[in-house]
């Protein structure tokens, strides 16, 4: 097993940080530091029925209480199915800043777990500002009734994620028409232009991206409004990511096969042309959304192009191709991130960001991660969160690939990094590695031909803390032998972890710790025959937050030596 991280409470004044042996560095005020990294969510089901993959969690989402930064809630898939979906969705809740977590199953989603549908997927969470938590799920039939029925549903917690109410239907389509990749956001604004407590859920129906809202804590939902109507473009939209602007407008970023015309001349004009494939990063703004009376559909959105999507497929695993967005709560600057090959000369990707001060005219892409552009180091699944002071945090996963594209020459390790911008997204500092040890891809969940830790991960902020959630795969114990050829039926052990990031308030030289309360057992990096053990890239601040004044203990054992198309369903 992997042991939880132990941290003695500290005051973030000038502090001594522990760096790996032989490494010295200086951590300056304002830089991110790793406070803790904990196991938070796991497969809590007593049994599974094939084709469910036991001991797996996938595709996590996280939200933090805006009134209590020590209270965070996450959602995730439990018991992945290779072809799509999972046994049901789970949750985990903390009230002490990520030190301890309560893990459980969301009620009423799938058969055998209080519900009536075959499968669940796409667990997403969002906080209101009075301890309400909204848990959005996609549920669908796999074989029952010919596999036609699918629905978007909501469960609400009124106590910060301790307990959950019953399923409320957002959209149910018993006769077909696949619903897919939902996201949720709450309007917590109290100024003019806002509808305080309004909950927005966005998703796609393969062709057509839509939004609904609720003004009664998720019990009833106003009829759907098109984010981008199916007759407005030829092809699929996906990953409709909503944020509420400081003036109460609803902004939605999404991927599409064909984007609307660019609003003005300049970068991105070529987006007006439709091309095949997931090729466009697009946006829609519902001006005045917060002023619409309850029961009235939203006005027609103003749509715009952000950029052409030129990302490479993440090789030898299923990951990526979805975006993330957030907004500066003071200035209203909107940020959208995705992985892209725009700066690359190889077959990998960078985490890239674009920003807009009005939601219609967009900056050129900003490369978030440092490093060479031809080193086959892939950066994918980026997510963005903005602090109240305008600080921008972007996280991503990364893995060392190879020019040969032979799977045996790839690293078996996947790491997670965070980079911070203090100048409103123009530049980013040296990345911080936020995981204590890397994922071993051999023990990961499996979907459609490869490793599956998720099409997306998520980052959230509140009260100066940043929470980074992702799924990690590793040996379940020191005796577990890794499969030679991983598949949907081999040994899996994939759980959900949350790293909590703080900010240094003083400057200190990082050095090797000389006094600790406990030892720091670190698993050796796995070796790959002829391949690469590490994810590569610059070490940066990796490990600098591994020890804050006090003791850190963290171990992950190292083991011995769909039917859906890529234009893509997120199931």
Ends: how far apart? 28 Å
Count of DSSP E strands?
A: 34
Strand content: 35-45%
Radius of gyration: 22 Å
Q: Helix proportion of residues, in percent? A: under 10%
Oligomer state of the chains in this structure: single chain
Largest sheet: 5 strands, antiparallel
What would you call the shape? globular
Q: Can you give the mean pLDDT?
A: 83
Helix and strand composition category: mainly beta
3D architecture notes:
By secondary structure, the protein is an all-beta fold. It has no helices and 34 strands. The strands form 9 sheets. Strands 24, 25, 26, 27 and 28 form a 5-stranded antiparallel sheet that branches. It has a 4-stranded antiparallel sheet with strand order 2-33-32-31, with no helix packed on it. Strands 3-4-5-6 form a 4-stranded antiparallel sheet, with no helix packed on it. It is globular. The N terminus is likely disordered.
